[in-house]
Amino acid sequence: MIATWWAGLSVAMKVLWGITLGASLIFIIQTVLTFLGADADATGLDGADFDTSVSDAAGDADLGGGSNLYTFRNLINFLLGFGWSVILLEEAIPSVGLRLIVAVAVGVLLVALVMYLFRLLGKMQQSGNIDVYSSAVGCEGTCYLTIPQSRSGEGKVQISIGGAVREYNAQTEDDSPITTGTPIKVVDVVNSITLLVTRTENTII
Known about the structure:
Blueprint: H1 2-7, H2 11-35, H3 72-88, H4 96-134, E1 140-145, E2 155-161, E3 164-172, E4 183-191, E5 194-199
Parallel strand pairs: 3-5
Antiparallel strand pairs: 1-2, 1-4, 2-3, 4-5
């Protein structure tokens, strides 16, 4: 049945079906990886022209190609919309020329929609991260990786928020480095991924 249907297709339609099914498979994989918080670049499916990691990159509000037009992801989105439109509208729009125009429009609209959704998700994640970091102000903890003095670099700290120990990037305005194991206190938020801390002294009663 399938073999007969396939044999009856023109060469152009066979190529279109192949491209469309391939684009659909890659789209599904990209979507699953994105919502699992993985970096699609690691799979080789997202090209080298943007970062899709859903982690510290939230500060850039970029969740997988949401802001760059010329990406492999957007190519897949366009082929997905274009290919399925040509296939599904074959009987509804007999004119090949008109069907191609409609298919191109659908492909472009799909690219625009996905870019908008990723940008929106990026802003939501960025906002969420800022709220989490702001709640850290005033919390105490310890230095995990040495923090260079006078904001000349970043280290890491571990602090307790809501009963859970969390690890964050950190800078300090102190005039000497804060070494590993030193008690610290969060005094401000530098940006969506970095805290400003100062050393504290253990009080002996």
